Structure formats: structure tokens, C-alpha cells
Amino acid sequence: MTPVFGVIIFLVLFAVLMMAVGLGSRFLEMRSKKQLETMLNPESAAAEEVETSILVTPTERDPLDAFLERSALQGKIQTLLQQSGLQWAPSHLLLAMVVGAVAGGFLGYVFQPLGFQIASVLAFAFATGVLTAVLFAIVTPFYKGRTYLQDQAEEVAPVGLAAQPEL
Questions:
Q1: How many domains does the chain contain in total?
Q2: H-type helices in the chain, by residue range?
Q3: Between the N and C ends of the chain, which has fewer C-beta atoms within 10 Å?
Q4: Does the pLDDT at position 143 exceed 60?
């Protein structure tokens, strides 16, 4: 590459970069002018605004959630999740338990610690499914350092009010 081509390439790239910076600054300047106009003249801004919604319209519900609503399990699972501080739906916990049970079933199939394949698969699947629920619902609050009951007690008697002496 000769120095002449290097200089030409540099000038072209520099011109493209300066045009991009100029267009960007023009855009920001126009946007700030429009914001200033809306602050000074709020009546015209209300007429120009188009209401946009970022909310997603609910579609079909998860079949597992629909099943759980009809059963008595949902209330118990929801209470357990609230006490643990997890913001999950009951179906998420059940799905995590199923994933844990499948992994445990696979481990029982591979290692066969009980000597019988079916017994090992069922025992490991049950144990890891329950262990998953215990880890997410019971151990998680202690890992976070707070429990649902501690939060509820603080709402009833905030620390600031409890620390004030009586007059």
C-alpha cells in the first residue's frame, strides 16, 4: 500500500466518522428541542402523545397452572414459596422438581446403588425431586439471610418504631 492510498483511506474514514457524529448531534439537538417545547407548552404535548402500552396481553395460560388452581396443592405450594421469599409460580417449583427427579432417575439408572435398576431409579428420582423442593423452598431463605416471616414481622413493627423510647 502506498502512502497516497493510506492518506485517502484515512480521509474517507474520517469524513464518514464526522458525518456520523454530526447526524448524531443533530438528532440529540432536535430531541432536546422537542423536550423543551413539551415542558414549556404542556397542552400541545398532551395532544401529540400517543399512548403506547408495553404490557403483553395474556394469552393461553399454562396447563399446569390451570390444573394446580383446581387442586388443593396450589395454596400449600404458594404459601411455601412465599415463606421462602421466591417469586415463583407453583408450576415453576413443580417443574424444577421434575427436572431434579429426571436427573436423579438418570443417576439411579447409571449407578444402581440399590442393586435393582427399577428401585434405584425410583429412589433416586424421588430423593432428588424432594431435595430440589427443599433446596429452593427451605434453604434459599437462609442463604438470602431473611425469611418471609421476618419480613412480615418488620411490616407489623418496623425497627425504627421499636427502637424509639416511650415518652
A1: 2
A2: 3-40, 42-48, 63-70, 73-84, 90-111, 117-134, 140-144, 148-156, 159-162
A3: C
A4: no
